[in-house]
Amino acid sequence: MRKSISMVVTVRNQEHEILPFYECVLRQKRVPEEIWFADAESTDESREILKKLEESDDRVHVVRTEHANLSRARNLVLERVSTDLLVFPRLSDRLAPGYLRDLAHVMELDSDFDMVASGYAEITLGGKVITTCKDFGGVISWKKMLGHCFTHRGMKTGLWNKMLRRDLIEREQLSFCEDLEDVTYFWQNRWNARTRTVEMVLCFF
Q1: pTM, whole model, 2 decimals?
Q2: 198 forms bridges with which residues in the sheet?
Q3: Dihedral of CA 67/32/184/144: which sign?
Q4: Alpha-carbon gap, residue 76 to 67, rounded angstroms
Q5: Where are the alpha helices (DSSP H) in 110-156?
Q6: Chain segment 44-103, per-residue pLDDT in tens
Q7: Which long-range contacts (CB under 8 A, 24 or more apart) does 42-48 make?
Q8: Rounded Cα distance, 24 and 97, in Å
Q9: Which one, 17, 30, 166, 198, has least CB within 10 Å?
Q10: For residues 108 and 85, is the Cβ–Cβ distance under 8 A?
Q11: Is 44 within 8 Å of 6 (Cβ atoms)?
Q12: In contact, 112 and 40? CB cutoff 8 Å
């Protein structure tokens, strides 16, 4: 069954990166139903560029925040998205044409999948490839990921190359940690039966 996709990306004073990223999204073999830009107090031309995109493309939605950090901006978007699947790329990312199509295809094969991860390459401004991670792509169990967070305190995992189900975010009460300014930490509310308290569990950066 075909699932709808939202792409969520944050912006702060990145006027020169918005249009290249947007054009990269339009070149996807499967374009997302919703493209969300979370603008956290941009003071350059970012706001005007985003306004024009929102006016010209019905898929583009812009959430603007005053006196808030990027994590808060992401949480405001989470309150508004209506699609089945979400991805959180960075504005500086350049996505392979089949990126969304391939990730969504895996998620559509089995509704029990919590998330799927892609491989990636880090490239300098001059085009030099620094690192690649071709073997990272694959289906991830949410419970296994939480298990790593509990048993391996030093382990963290990037959110920007993963696709998640929206109902997972709602079910697990996930949100970005607003105490952190510009790091994509994802937190989960978890009940501790021993202490009878709700704990905030770090899941992603």
Answers
A1: 0.80
A2: 191
A3: positive
A4: 13
A5: 142-151
A6: 999 999 999 999 999 999 998 876 678 888 889 999 999 999 999 888 888 889 999 988
A7: 42/11, 42/12, 42/13, 42/14, 42/15, 43/13, 44/13, 44/14, 44/15, 45/15, 46/11, 46/12, 46/13, 46/14, 46/15, 46/18
A8: 8
A9: 198
A10: no
A11: no
A12: no
Site of tokens 């990636």: 120
3-state secondary structure of 130: strand
Contacts for 145 with CB less than 8 Å, ≥ 6 apart: 114, 115, 157, 203
Task: Using the structure block, give the residue that is written with the tokens 């490839």.
Answer: 129
Please give the structure tokens belonging to residue 172: 């697990």
Burial class (CB in 10 A: 0-12, 13-18, 19+), 2: exposed
Largest CA distance in the chain: 54
Contacts of 113 (CB under 8 A, 6+ apart): 106, 107, 139, 165
Structure tokens at 105: 């295809």
